[in-house]
Amino acid sequence: MHAEFSKTPTIRLASAAEVLPLRRAILRADVPMEEAKFWNDEAPDTLHGGAFLEDRCIGCATLLREPFNGKDACRLRGMAVDSAYQSRGIGTDVLEFLLKQAMQTGVRIFWCNARVPAMNFYKRMGWEIQSDIFDIPTAGPHYVMSLRR
To answer: CA 110: distance to chain centroid?
Structure first.
């Protein structure tokens, strides 16, 4: 673990219900809970990962099976870390855990619409910008980024 805590967070697969409250609080606080759900959150090949301190989710991310440039890939969505725990390696730990889980199913290409403030986080992890900047009206400026493993 990168983080320094009195208790070490447990990184594990999670359900959509376990990650949704944090996803909404950090990324979509202005919308009702129902609107923070992704249409394929419950798909059998969707992976949700979380960092948990006891039963509390303090970091999360979701990988959805979604092609990229016509190739089999997973799309990263809903990456969030509780503001009290940011910059402690939790996001890195959750994302690395999920990437390994997806790679066990044969996926080697990952992509996301990265918010501009998170771009350097993804760059440090080896992701590359694949688009010009664009705006998502409910979430602000983004870049498409991808990672090949």
So the answer is: 11
CB 109 within 8 A of CB 148: yes
Whether the CB-CB separation of 136 and 113 falls below 8 Å is answered with: yes
Distance (Å, rounded) from C-alpha 133 to C-alpha 104?
Answer: 32
Helix residue spans in 9-89 (DSSP H): 16-27
**pLDDT digit string (tens) for 96-125?**
999 999 999 999 999 999 999 999 999 999
Strand, coil or helix: what is 59?
Answer: strand
Q: How many CA atoms lie within 13 A of 84 on its CB side?
A: 7
Strands 47-53 and 10-14 turn out to be antiparallel
